[in-house]
Write a structure and sequence with these properties.
Blueprint: H1 19-26, E1 35-38, H2 47-61, E2 66-73, H3 77-89, E3 94-100, E4 113-119, H4 125-140, E5 147-153
Length: 155
């Protein structure tokens, strides 16, 4: 991963390790500008809670930062509840986009899509994402239930 960002110099920090533990040490950045991608495996049952706690703490330390949280669409209570929990944490602008590539499996197992919740999204991100989502649905659809949703709040 480091080699992909080598030309960025000090503008990008790639840190290997427990991102939840390391996030506090990196916030706020000296420039007071930054983007944080949170993309845990969600294989540990505590990951959903850890995401909520990390975002709450990160927003307290760096309220103007842009934070992007990826999450899986799974037929599980924690996965289904995460977007609403993130929305409740957002004091400012946010964007929530999700992409369903197929209907949930009848047996209740497996990933059927994913989503992004963006705190303090960059200007015009909503317009750009809205324009690209139909093409993503068309390219990634696995059945006729493929679709997307997009919600945006600008304060």
């Amino acid at each position: 991963m480091h080699e992909h960002f080598a030309s960025a110099g000090r503008a990008v920090a790639v840190v290997a390790g427990d991102g939840f533990a390391g996030l506090k040490a990196l916030l706020p950045p000296p420039s007071r500008r930054g983007l944080v991608l949170i993309d845990p495996s969600y294989e540990l049952s505590n990951d959903y809670k850890a995401v909520r706690v990390a975002i709450r703490d990160a927003l307290e330390r760096f309220a103007t930062g842009t934070f992007v949280v990826w999450y899986p669409q799974l037929p599980q209570r924690d996965a289904e509840a995460l977007p609403d929990a993130l929305q409740r944490l957002a004091a400012g602008d946010w964007l929530h986009v999700s992409l369903r590539v197929r209907a949930p499996a009848a047996d209740g197992f497996g990933l059927h899509g994913s989503g992004l919740f963006v705190f303090n999204p960059p200007w015009n991100l909503e317009k750009d994402v809205r324009a690209m989502m139909p093409a993503l649905v068309a390219a990634l659809a696995q059945d006729e239930h493929a679709d997307y949703s997009l919600a945006f709040r600008q304060t």
